[in-house]
Amino acid sequence: MTSYVTILDYLGVAPFTATGALTASRRQLDILGFTFLGTLTGIGGGTVRDLILDVPV
């Protein structure tokens, strides 16, 4: 059951990471920009999701 929840968690974070990567693409950033924006939005989006669902962050 735990691995199932972990997989769902990763699937929930993936759209936020993709959003950051698409933003980096539109701004024509290099690989460092892609990595930074993808990580920032992935972590930030996951945190916001946890706060909305009232899950301990």
From TrEMBL:
Location of this chain's protein in the cell: Cell membrane
Residue span(s) of domain Glycine transporter: 7-57
Highest taxon, organism lineage: Bacteria
Endoplasmic reticulum is among the record's keywords: no
Signal sequence, start to end: none
Keyword list, A-Z: Cell membrane, Membrane, Transmembrane, Transmembrane helix
Family as reported in the entry's similarity comment: Belongs to the UPF0126 family.
Protein name: UPF0126 family protein
